[in-house]
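Please, structure for the following, as tokens.
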Amino acid sequence: MKVADLERALRFDCGVLGFEITQRDGAQAAFVSAGDYHHIGLNTWESRGGSPPPAGTTGLYHTAILYPTRRALAVALRSVLEAGIVLDGASDHGVSEALYLRDPDENGVELYWDRPKEQWPRTPTGELAMFTRRLDLNGLLKEIESVPDAPKVDAGPRDL
């Protein structure tokens, strides 16, 4: 992923999202992961000091990062809120729960967890019946702590 400022990108990916640096090439590139093998490569080779592409142009819509449990997604939400990052949206899709936000380079990021397949909504004939509804952020945060009030945000993208 092209980034304008590697240190800023690493503060977000590692400090907020919880990835770890697996390899680094000075101030030009780094690989981060949520395990042994790197999952995201960041570099400034063509983008140091650059700006995000203007709206209405082609490019990556967003990256989607899968968390293993609802509790892990709640921990990620708490980290995002503590960092002062504003959510673009938060959606319950029936099969998953998702948070939508922007990284420091204005790239779209989806943080989500998948419900077990046996809990996925189905039609009477057995077809998948996904939907997009507002995600209860307070309910999500209750996975890890008692909270007075989470921010109110709209449902996320409706790109199903």
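The chain has three helices and eight strands. The first strand starts at residue 20 and ends at 25.
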